[in-house]
């Protein structure tokens, strides 16, 4: 039996909804409006939860399944919120051969999430990336753009403690 995955609850504000409705009203009659609407919606909310997709569907008349299809097809969109601290582990060749896969796996275990997810408290999100251009420091991870290099699995606890 699969355990129910805990997720960060949707917490959109009235101001965000008003911004989204304004964007939709400005763009909905243009040809190909869905992509720019989704891009602006993600700028407003940081991601595209089902609640936001539903608003877009209701306001544009575009079926929800089409909106979901576009949001899941293009890699620029995310259906999951990002944490206050966005962890990105490089899985490019240089980092991977020096153990970044082990670091990524250890982070998933310690945080209790898989790549692309956010911890239930909204503090950390985890993603894999390809080369960040710091191959000489391999293996590398970044937290909100701060680079940590020459990592071992034993370094993870001390690094995460800086963000607690």
What can you see in these coordinates?
This protein is α+β, with helices and mostly antiparallel strands and 164 residues long. It has 2 domains: 60 residues; 77 residues, Glutaredoxin. It contains 7 helices and 4 strands. A 4-stranded mixed β-sheet has the order 2-1-3-4, covered by helices on one side. The protein starts with 13 loop residues before the first helix and ends with a helix. One of its GO terms (molecular function) is metal ion binding. This is NAD(P)-dependent iron-only hydrogenase diaphorase component iron-sulfur protein. Keywords: 2Fe-2S, Iron, Iron-sulfur, Metal-binding. It comes from Faecalicatena orotica.
SSE order and pairing:
Blueprint (H helix, E strand, L loop, with lengths): L13 H14 L6 H12 L4 H11 L3 H10 L11 E6 L2 H5 L2 H12 L12 E6 L11 E3 L2 E3 L7 H6 L3
Parallel strand pairs: 1-2
Antiparallel strand pairs: 1-3, 3-4
Helix pairs in contact: 1-2, 1-3
Count of DSSP H/I helices: 7
Q: For this entry, what is the oligomeric state of its chains?
A: single chain
Distance between the termini: 32 Å
CATH architectural name of the largest domain: 3-Layer(aba) Sandwich
Classified by CATH, the class of the largest domain is: Alpha Beta
Q: Which stretches are poorly predicted, pLDDT < 50 over at least 5 residues?
A: none
Quantity of strands, as a count? 4
Shape: elongated
Largest β-sheet summary: 4 strands, mixed
Strand content: 5-15%
């Amino acid at each position: 039996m699969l355990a129910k995955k805990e997720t960060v609850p949707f917490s959109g504000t009235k101001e965000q909804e008003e911004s989204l409705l304004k964007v939709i009203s400005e763009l909905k009659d243009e040809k190909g409006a869905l992509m720019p609407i989704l891009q602006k919606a993600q700028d407003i909310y940081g991601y595209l939860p089902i609640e936001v997709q539903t608003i877009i569907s209701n306001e544009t008349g575009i079926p929800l399944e089409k909106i979901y299809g576009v949001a899941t097809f293009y890699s620029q969109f995310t259906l999951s919120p990002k944490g206050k601290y966005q962890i990105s582990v490089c899985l490019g060749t240089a980092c991977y051969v020096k153990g970044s896969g082990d670091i990524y796996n250890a982070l998933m275990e310690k945080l209790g999430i898989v790549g692309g997810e956010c911890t239930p408290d909204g503090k950390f999100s985890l993603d894999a990336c390809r080369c960040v251009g710091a191959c000489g420091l391999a293996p590398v991870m970044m937290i909100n753009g701060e680079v940590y290099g020459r990592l071992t699995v034993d370094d993870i606890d001390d690094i995460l403690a800086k963000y607690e």
